[in-house]
Amino acid sequence: MKGLNYCTSILIAPGVVASGPVLAASEQQDEDVSQANIYLFGRLLVARQQQLDFQDGFKWNEIVHREPGKVDWPNPNLDVAYSEAWLAVDETSCTIATVPEIKDRYFTVQILNGWGETLANINERVFPSKSSGDFTICLRDAKVDLPHNVTSRIDLPVKQARVLIRVALGDDWDKAVAYQHQFTFKATGSPTVQDIAKTPVFPLETLPGVEAFEAVAAALDSEPDLNPGQEPLAETARAIRAAIKDPTERARIDKVIRDRGFADFAKAGPPIGHGTVRNGWARPATVGVYNTDYLARTLINYGGIWANIAPEVMYSASAGRKAGQGPRYVGGACGRR
Q: Of 2.60.120.650, 3.30.390.50, 2.40.160.10, 2.60.40.1610, which CATH number belongs to 64-187?
């Protein structure tokens, strides 16, 4: 490697206790490449979808209402009508979300960050005394004068966020769609937005190899990982980006990703990382918020992006596919609580 050392530590999956002989230097390097690739891929999947959304005509703080069954990301629920948006807030501008009064069916306004982690929900579970009306979504600690009728404020740790609105279709689809179109967003000011990160936009059937690491700065600088403990993975990814400037090392790392990284990802697919398998169905150990479980986060972003948290939804997936068939397992079946 001509003296380059990007192995900052041996990366061990959460909940796994190291045992047996210490990895040889070359094996450790390959393991670090594989795990850093899985970590980075989780962010690239969200950045990919953001770019596709804005190519499709999305505008900041404007809701796009989808016809039932017509969304173009992996494994949507078929029993809900979806509306989507990208929020932009800053120190001078919040976004007012107007939620209609819905009494006869499930709904939620889910807010996620650029890693696919759920930041908040607006619904009857979270706001049992007043789940309709105007809610203000702001950057944390922003000093913004708000309308007097806005009583509920949701503070975000980031300036950009993805929103997914779900309204259960039930037996009356027309009524669900009517509710869906009553959700509105309105910015209180003119937020300053950063450029959308330019990262690879790849077919989900063809995973990127070493070229993924060319986007490390764009991916990680545009959306910091808020979960403590992920810093070594980010540092390893940045070090690999520096290492692949050498053509020989670039070719070696690309081979490690394709030979080992893809296999590691596929092997983790059937149990959804650290999930459980019972009667041919897998349940993830965590969903919607992931803490140090970057493996589950990436698998879920790949197989069923925009997953919500456990109090809102129960996900399962068929665990019958073999690892050699590829890692896209998540989101096979789900039902609301």
A: 2.60.40.1610
Read off the pLDDT of residues 135-146 as tens digits, 9 standing for 90 and up.
Answer: 999 999 999 988
pLDDT in tens, 201-247: 999 999 999 999 999 999 999 999 999 999 999 999 999 999 999 99
How many Å apart are CA 209 and CA 260, to the nearest integer? 11
Rounded to an integer, what distance in angstroms lies between the CA atom of residue 1 and that of residue 244?
Answer: 10
Torsion (CA) 216, 203, 165, 284 in degrees, nearest 10 = -80
Name the more confident of 1 and 78. Answer: 78
Q: In what order do the strands lie in the sheet with 133-139?
A: 152-156, 133-139, 95-99, 184-187
Distance CA 316, CA 334 (A): 6
Residue 315: strand pairing partners: 334
pLDDT band at 320 (very low <50, low <70, confident <90, very high): low
pTM: 0.87
- Domain extent listing, the chain: 20-57+211-268, 64-187, 271-337
Rounded CA separation 49/164 (Å) = 13
What whole-number distance in Å separates Cα of residue 231 and Cα of residue 237? 10
Spatial distance between the Cα atoms of 68 and 50, rounded to a whole number of angstroms? 21
Which of 83, 280, 77 has the alpha carbon at shortest distance from 162?
A: 83
